What does this fold into?
Amino acid sequence: MLTMRSALKDARGLAAALLTGTALLAPGSLLAQEDETTITAVMHSGLRVLDPVITTAHITRNHGYMIYDVLTAVDADFKPQPQMADWEISEDNRTYTFTLREGLKFHDGAPVTGADVVASLKRWGKRDSGGQLIFDVTASLQSPDDKTVVWTLTEPFAPLLDVISKQSAVPPFIMPARVAETSADETITEYVGSGPFVFNEEEYEPGVNVTYEKFDDYVPRDEPASWMAGGKVVNVDRVVWTTMPDALTAINALSAGEIDYLEQVQIDLLPILESNPDVTVETRDELGYVTIGRPNHLLPPFDNKLIRQAAMAALDQESMLATMQGDPAYYNVCGAIFGCATPLGNEAGSEILTGGANIEKAKALLEEAGYDGTPIVLMAPTDVTSLINQPVVAAQALREAGFEVDMQSMDWQSLVQRRAQQNPVAEGGWNMFFTNWMVPEISDPLINVMVNGRGDDAWFGWPTDPRVEELRAAFVAAKDDASRNEIAVQIQEHVMDNVNYIMMGEYLIPQARRTAIRNMIPSPVPVFWNITKAAE
Amino acid sequence: MFVYILKRVLATIPVMLIVAIFVFLLLRLTPGDPAAILAGDAATPAQLDRIRERLGLNDPLLTQFFTWMGQLARGDLGVSLLSNTSVAGMVADRLGPTINIALMTIVISVALAVPMGVIAAWRHRTWVDFLVMSFSVLGFSVPVFVIGYILIQIFAIELRWVPVQGYKDPSEGFGAFFSRAILPSLTLATIYIALIARMTRASMLEVLGEDYIRTARAKGVRENVVLFRHALRNAAVPILTIIGTGFALLISGVVVTESVFNIPGIGRLTVDAILARDYPVIQAMILLTAGIYVFVNLLVDVSYSLFDPRIRY
It folds into this structure.
């Protein structure tokens, strides 16, 4: 780490060198990429929070997959697969017995034990909404020996494996028990996992650089890698994540071969890369993201279902997505609240959303509801590129339908503070905002926080919706996929009618890599196992 | 002189205290919630409240303020609310790139701008003067990121003489450092060359009309000696002031240039901390910036006496 004193010393050295004319241009080798054992990647944001359980930030989740492992993991078919452990389920579906596989070791050399798993799952269960539901019906979670974990429930919880295998927000990463005993409301301070990469704490600069080194003692599974499941075979020595706040600089750096991989490429800058034969542009995450509008169910006028329906009728997915993305290859009109390409995804009752704006219907609904012209405070973030356009397009559409719209611009931080306010608008409250989610984060009724209908305990917007809670409970109790799919259709129809939130469609974000980078597996989470890097 | 410096240093204490109070209150009055950034988008209000409690953000303002002042008195800048790392360490990591780029920029700027200003004044109302002033207007007018992109396109992408972006510490090899620092330094220098050249020209024009310059020329002193020894020295005070202010500005952060060239400097640290409402980092950065201004102003004031013997403290 550079100290203040060494910084000043360097500065004096530099001044002396410049004054004495010793400054020389770099030799050509400096411009070449690092060797083929290091992958340099520019990720979508800087890594600042190192605790993948306390936060739902994607970059921290990605960091989690680098250094930690998970008990079970979802594959490309959305099926839970063994990762650290195999499992057996009792006949009454109330006891899950996990057996840790051989060779699991933490980066400090200690073996992974059942006690570590129990402590990690308990901490995760305090943070994750799905985890909380499982712990609501947990009788005991114990480790009778070093290799075994027994999870006993008071009643069957059919989606248990789906919840603990989910790839996003928040996966139950396994940490040493001494780390996992940290309060769930406090960040951990020791970063030891048992995953395929070791976190290099010495080289870590928050928000700037993070370096991972191959964990030589990691034993991958034999199955081929598929999403977060399968063998995590590491073929490089180091992976360096770096942050580049300027999109054009990142594009130039990739073109010049200074970096190997760019996780997200701005669509308007794609032509620069597409003409470069040394660079491959692709979409490795075919599920992509959704953009949604969330009305505040507590305050007028959106405490009235008819007025929420009027807002939904006024909005047009196509125009909003086109404004956001530009190129139709990178967006998808979709009315499925669980995503269009997921196992539970269905578009029942969504014609009002996918068929374009219906201003006449919106006007009729407003009249029927007796809308009195109460202005809608629409919060518009100005500093998050992927969220700038939605409020502008929505405001215009809502005004056309007869809404009074008070669009208030603010930075994202002000928005996240204000959206937690349940007060009336005059006292800092709000009526609507837009945000984005990865599709796997909304792909079932337990993961999707926006279909939580528990009033004050629900996500911002606080719908009190006994019907959706009844359906979610039925989903938990459902015994097979067919029943779950049937309930998902009912939830979809109910949400379309009750307008818990407004699904505004799906969009994709292209990635780019040097052609020397090969064998990247398709996944919503960019993973660095399986990848090989050839000499250029 | 020593007593003067001591007095000035002591005078910084109330200044810094006022800055500290102001920054603390301003941050607490600004909307935003570090707990929301820490917990992410899916956190419920109850979870956020528990995290706020843990971070001490639910404590009364006075308690928070005195906790921070107590830390400062012990020389402790605190810990980042997000990364849980020492603020002093974060600042030290970012200070190196910023100081090095600032020094390089100032050296380039002074080396080019002072002769340009002197020559423009010497050749007043000729094409040389016109050329220098035209460059100066351009330097002021063209946004810094445009200059940065143009330099990257020419020297990094077309000619491939230097890398597009990044920063290496001089301890990793001077060539590695220089090849990455030269484009951002040249980019920043464009503004400072314009500023310093204009100031030098204006100051020199005033001095060149003085009687002692006419006397020196009448005595047959060589023109370069007249210009650089007699005139420039007497014109130095306003030039030094502008160089000092420029240096303080460079040290306190040049976020656009840092972003375009991907330099992990003070500017980006400050902006990132503000966007995330990372209070301890923002407070430290603003105190540091205030300290830098006070220190640089003191240095500039002291240096006046080196160039102008009439100034005594």
